[in-house]
Amino acid sequence: MKLDLHPTVKLVKKKATTVRPAMDAAKLRALCLEAGADDVGFVALDRDEVRDQRDEILSVLPGAKTLVSFVVRMNRDDIRSPARSMANLEFHHTNDAINDVGRAIVRALLDHGHRAVLPSAGFPMEMDRFPGKTWLVSHKPIAVAAGLGAMGIHRNVIHPQFGNFILLGTVVTDLAWAADEASTPLDYNPCLECKLCVAACPVGAIGSDGHFDFSACYTHNYREFMGGFTDWVENIADAANARDYRARVSDSESASMWQSLSFGANYKAAYCLAVCPAGEDVIGPFLSSRKDFTAQVVRPLQDKVEPIYVTAKSDAEAYVAKRFPHKRIRRVNSGLRVNSIEALIRGMPLRFQRGQSDGLAARYHFSFHGSERVDLTVDIRDHVLTIERGLAGEADVHVTADAEVWLATLRRDKSLFWALLTRRVRVRGKLTLLRRFGACFP
């Protein structure tokens, strides 16, 4: 049979003559809201705000032209509860709702003859890339570009009406609209700069000056995700027997990890979201009485007796000991290991502990050879980390190292003493300054 005579081909050609109503922005917006989205906006892929994501988005859907950004509200009193089971149940259910809404949008676009995909709102992710970037789409900057909110100092998107009690989703499609149908960013930031997120964070990850300590947040709040899970597995592997394992990991921690494995990974805090009073639907109690709002929402989280997971000798450990002495410090490995020099360069700003750099003013040159040939200048002064490709200026310390050996010393697979003794690593300058450097990245 000739292809043109096949029944399927004949039917499709006949349907192709049927004029289908156009899927314009107004129609798709109405469909998204009917599907369960609480707000939606559209961002053209050629917008500057998503320039850094364009190549990966096109790899996900070649020919993509538009990003459909949408939000689903969470029930805020559940998120605010000191009982983390209630908060995590709300996170999980809302995440399921995001995926259901996104699938409905994709189906509608497909039914109208357009290609569309739904990158995951959270998990699953591309774990073959771990510990590198495992997500396909960064939802926050897309939501900001779509006018669905602005970033608060706690690094969460704050919707003008719903506050930060939202989860975000993004649909990628080849549908394109006229410029006047696209969304625009808000002309103001809903963040009140009240600093309640600063006061509530149990590890001091949010600085009152806007600084954010990624490592502190990741180590505690995401304890039962990715890196924390790896650390738990290594505790099992290193334990001599059951008694030794119980000395390393408490029964409640084992039960909590089991719960995360069976039900879904649980957040340990997310208190920054819980206490945020921004948003038209949220701000009322805060405006009525800041004292009562603090007593009812902030203090229960601050007063909660709980384990706080920190990296040894980190800024977070010092913060907990000073600010929340009633909370129990648990020293753990963050799991933020590096497997390449390029990953090391990307990760240094995330792991830098500015409190550990008190009084340090030094410039470091690194010359890596072997599997990766990279020259690097790292400057630390006035609590600020600066990284530059190449060897710039005069260095106080110059490290020359085989790339694989240096990475092995960072992972503690090999000792730095051995690397120096065998001249796989050579240091010109004061070793005391190199030790100070290491203390900034515990």
From TrEMBL:
Top-rank taxon: Bacteria
Under the heading InterPro entries, the entry gives: 4Fe4S_Fe-S-bd (IPR017896), 4Fe4S_Fe_S_CS (IPR017900), SCP2_sterol-bd_dom_sf (IPR036527)
Show where the 4Fe-4S ferredoxin-type domain sits: 182-211
Q: Which Pfam families match?
A: Fer4
Write out the entry's keywords from A to Z. Answer: Iron, Iron-sulfur, Metal-binding
This chain belongs to the protein called SCP2 sterol-binding domain-containing protein
